[in-house]
Amino acid sequence: MTESRRTIWVLGARGAIAVLFGGLTLVWPQVTVLALARAFGTYALADGAVLLGAAWRHRGELRPAVVCAAAAGALGIAAGAMTALWPGPTALVLLVMAGAWAIVTGCLELWVATRMRHELRYAWWWRASAAVSVAAGVLLWLRPYAGAMDIALVLGVYALIAGGIWLSAAWREYRTHAHHSRSWTSRPPSGARVAH
């Protein structure tokens, strides 16, 4: 698998997972704190696994994007494991945990987008995702007494927007890759003459 295809897969997987989680939390009537915690834990775990997998494939490199993917992946898996092992989290515990996860993940993405703004093809996608993530975390922390429905609303909207950003980035990367592939196959072989 080429590097471009790996990038498309990682972006698409993150986007699809986020959109699925966001859609479920927004259409789930009468969601309970326990159900929301389990849904968030599954989402964080899946997102973390995708990021850790991407970091593992580039484990020989110490680029900011690889470090960010590893750190965000480990954080997602830790958040997912904590919500899975917690017997019955309160709304405040879930709010603090989800808020911290969103803010730290957003800060990591912003760090990568800033450090690698000349190397990343679409650095502004990273900045947009980071801004949405940090905003969601701050919104959660500003409402310490929010109930399950309020938390679900913030997390759902955040996940849908972030998922849409990553899916759009995957689509742009796919279109760029397809364009380069067509350009490469349309070139004549080296040393070949083009008929006039």
Describe what you observe in this structure.
With 196 residues, this protein is mostly helical. The protein has helices spanning 3-27, 33-57, 64-85, 91-115, 123-142, 148-186. Helix 1 (3-27) packs antiparallel against helix 6 and helix 2 packs antiparallel against helix 3 (64-85). The radius of gyration is 19 Å and the shape is globular.
Keywords:
196 residues; globular; mainly alpha
What are the low-pLDDT stretches, counting only 5+ consecutive residues below 50? 188-196
Assembly state (oligomeric) = single chain
Number of strands: 0
- H and E string: HHHHHH
- Give the rounded overall mean pLDDT: 82
State the shape: globular
Structural class: mainly alpha
Number of helical runs?
6
What's this entry about, in short?
By secondary structure, the protein is mainly alpha-helical. The protein has six helices and no strands.
Note the topology.
Elements: H1 3-27, H2 33-57, H3 64-85, H4 91-115, H5 123-142, H6 148-186
